[in-house]
């Protein structure tokens, strides 16, 4: 199955078939056609952004003084690519299919003070160059100590030599690139498809006798020799120093078929840990869910049977428990309009997440479809506004609200406005760093247009349809005078019970969360969408069950303020998600820059807020169904 390099938000049908390992690795997405190349066909290497896990700030390849073609052409980008900071441009590196070349001079550069400073800063921050050939990203093939191979995305710009202070340290640039292109040949025709793209970066201080611009010849390498890593004098980065960029390319036939060419990129991590930890997590949650369901069913059936057998009013008066609050349980909560807004937004996020995951399962959002995941999420969010308006209006009408237009405006603007404000501040910081990750003004305008031009009208349409329908009837009548709530035990206090409620849903996802965070912040590909979907379903079940249990205990202690409590019980799992992101930041990331830290926590805040709205809504709907069900099951005089 294809995957996607999930970025910034990336949370989170076709059952167990998708979980089998061979299927996950071999299924290729629809809509990407293979290119067949004949011997001698021109191959154009494209350059993508410079990326670093240390700073999380992508830069344009030509931000540094690399060799550039006469005219730099930016390839067509989709919305997702722009939001991710991808800038795919042409380069000076061109090959001829199945024609080996060695020691080709790309260009000669003399470094200015500014260029040398930029190179040193980027080497310090562990920046890597990302290139693409026939839609395959370049990778460095590393040999591990145990003899196995591992792939690394892109290659390092250079290396920092040993030195005392930062001022004295020497910096070396990888100015020679040794490319290896793997191809799979068709046995019947002479055509071949590219199935692998590797590079070995080398630093070499090139020398020459006289420089001929049309046919440059070097002493340090020539067309008949191949440079071996470690056998050369490295090229130092210094002001006014001349650097000659060279490359060579070899072609190698490979048994890998075109449909499986992404396997090496997707199998970079130790998969065993992933599979076992997720299965372990699922087992624990399924066991807990079974226990919860069993307790609920047995206790509830017993309660309902008892209540229905009470014949006299006196017996009913003596009885305690959830039946006593039947006259208040459907009393609208304080700030009922705000609850409607949050529930509507939660439905919107749920719809977006569900459909995105189905697309991902079907292979439409594989890594070869760069920016596909981000584009899908933005567009689905916009179109799901219809369901947000509808669900918000239905609930608002049940609460006997009258200002439906005001409620609809809040649903259309509240969550996106908070998101957009944080995003705008973060984008301004990225602009300040001159990073290519900054969203251009034109794209910002397009996002605002999607919001105002499509999402807002759809919320109004949904709201109009929801408000036209008859109001949801309560199964029992509400008393005119509110009942007094008895003193609650310490463990039934709102703060304590909501915080306890969030632990179980977070427990269902936190192992998968580790892999998602790694894919976002450590530049890995995330592709096991089959498992992610199962974990998503488990999350929903857990949110529903923990909310129902705590809601039941709350009603038994004669506290009928369950509306907001149900939402916050499941939603509090977002607090644990944010705390986990702090732990992940401290233990796994090497971010030192202030701006990068602000970016990380800004994006994690957006993610946690969306998670709060999603889980809160699921918990609320489960509790809403449960309360209606139990009060319609008992006879009330």
Automatic annotation (TrEMBL):
Organism for this UniProt entry: Acorus calamus (Sweet flag)
TM segment ranges: 273-296, 339-365, 371-390, 411-432, 444-467, 499-522, 528-553, 565-586, 598-627
A Gene Ontology cellular-component term: endosome membrane
Biological processes per GO annotation: protein localization to membrane
Domain of life (superkingdom): Eukaryota
Principal location listed in the UniProt entry: membrane
Keywords: Endosome, Membrane, Signal, Transmembrane, Transmembrane helix
Name recorded for this polypeptide: Transmembrane 9 superfamily member
Compartments it resides in: Endosome membrane; Golgi apparatus membrane
Family statement drawn from the similarity comment of this UniProt entry: Belongs to the nonaspanin (TM9SF) (TC 9.A.2) family.
Signal peptide: 1-26
Topology term for the membrane: Multi-pass membrane protein
InterPro entries documented for this protein: EMP70 (IPR004240), MFS_trans_sf (IPR036259)
């Amino acid at each position: 199955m294809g995957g996607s390099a999930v970025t910034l938000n990336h949370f989170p049908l076709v059952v167990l078939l998708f979980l089998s390992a061979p299927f996950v690795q071999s299924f290729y997405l629809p809509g990407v056609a293979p290119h067949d190349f004949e011997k001698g066909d021109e191959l154009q290497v494209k350059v993508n952004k410079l990326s670093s896990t240390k700073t999380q700030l992508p830069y344009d390849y030509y931000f540094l003084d690399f060799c550039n073609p006469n005219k730099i052409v930016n390839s067509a980008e989709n919305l997702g690519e722009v939001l991710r900071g991808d800038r795919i441009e042409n380069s000076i590196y061109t090959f001829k299919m199945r024609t080996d070349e060695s020691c080709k001079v790309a260009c000669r550069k003399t470094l200015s003070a500014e260029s040398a400073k930029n190179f040193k800063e980027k080497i310090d921050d562990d920046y890597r160059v990302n290139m693409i050939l026939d839609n395959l990203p370049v990778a460095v093939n590393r040999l591990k100590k145990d003899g196995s191979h591992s792939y690394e995305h892109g290659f390092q710009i250079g290396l920092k030599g040993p030195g005392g202070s930062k001022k004295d340290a020497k910096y070396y640039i990888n100015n020679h690139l040794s490319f290896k292109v793997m191809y799979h040949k068709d046995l019947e025709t002479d055509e071949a498809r590219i199935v692998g793209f590797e590079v070995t970066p080398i630093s070499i201080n090139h020398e020459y006798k006289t420089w001929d611009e049309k046919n440059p010849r070097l002493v340090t390498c020539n067309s008949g020799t191949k440079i071996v890593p470690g056998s050369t004098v490295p090229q130092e980065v210094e002001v006014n120093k001349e650097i000659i960029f060279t490359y060579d390319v070899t072609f190698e036939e490979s048994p890998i078929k075109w449909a499986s060419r992404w396997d090496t990129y997707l199998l970079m991590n130790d998969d065993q840990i992933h599979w076992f930890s997720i299965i372990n997590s699922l087992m624990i949650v399924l066991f807990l869910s079974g226990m919860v369901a069993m307790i609920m069913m047995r206790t509830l059936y017993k309660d309902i049977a008892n209540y229905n057998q009470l014949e006299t009013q006196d017996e009913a008066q003596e009885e305690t428990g959830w039946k006593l609050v039947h006259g208040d349980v459907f009393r609208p909560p304080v700030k009922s309009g705000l609850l409607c807004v949050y529930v509507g937004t939660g439905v919107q996020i749920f719809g977006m997440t569900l459909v995105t995951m189905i697309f991902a399962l079907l292979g439409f959002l594989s890594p070869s479809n760069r920016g596909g995941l981000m584009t899908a999420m933005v567009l689905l969010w916009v179109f799901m506004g219809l369901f947000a308006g509808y669900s918000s209006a239905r609930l608002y009408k049940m609460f006997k609200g009258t200002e439906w237009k005001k409620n609809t405006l809040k649903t259309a603007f509240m969550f996106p406005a908070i998101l957009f404000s944080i995003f705008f501040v973060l984008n301004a910081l990225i602009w300040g760093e001159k990073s290519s990750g900054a969203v251009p003004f034109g794209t910002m305008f397009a996002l605002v247009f999607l919001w105002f031009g499509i999402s807002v009208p759809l919320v109004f349409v949904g709201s109009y349809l929801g408000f036209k329908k008859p109001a949801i009837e309560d199964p029992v009548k509400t008393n005119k005078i509110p009942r007094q709530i008895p003193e609650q035990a310490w463990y039934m206090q709102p703060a304590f019970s909501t915080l306890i409620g969030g632990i179980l849903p977070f427990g269902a996802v936190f192992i998968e969360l580790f892999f998602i965070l790694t894919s976002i912040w450590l530049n890995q590909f995330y592709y096991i969408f089959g498992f992610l979907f199962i974990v998503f379903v488990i999350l929903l079940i857990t949110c529903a069950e923990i909310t129902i249990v705590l809601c039941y205990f709350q009603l038994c202690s004669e506290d009928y303020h369950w509306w907001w409590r149900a939402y916050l019980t499941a939603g509090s799992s977002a607090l644990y998600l944010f705390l986990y992101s702090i732990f992940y930041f401290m233990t796994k990331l090497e971010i030192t820059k202030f701006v990068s830290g602000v970016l990380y926590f800004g994006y994690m805040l957006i993610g946690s807020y969306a998670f709060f709205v999603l889980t809160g809504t699921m918990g609320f709907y489960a509790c809403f169904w449960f309360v209606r069900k139990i009060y319609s099951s008992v006879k009330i005089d």
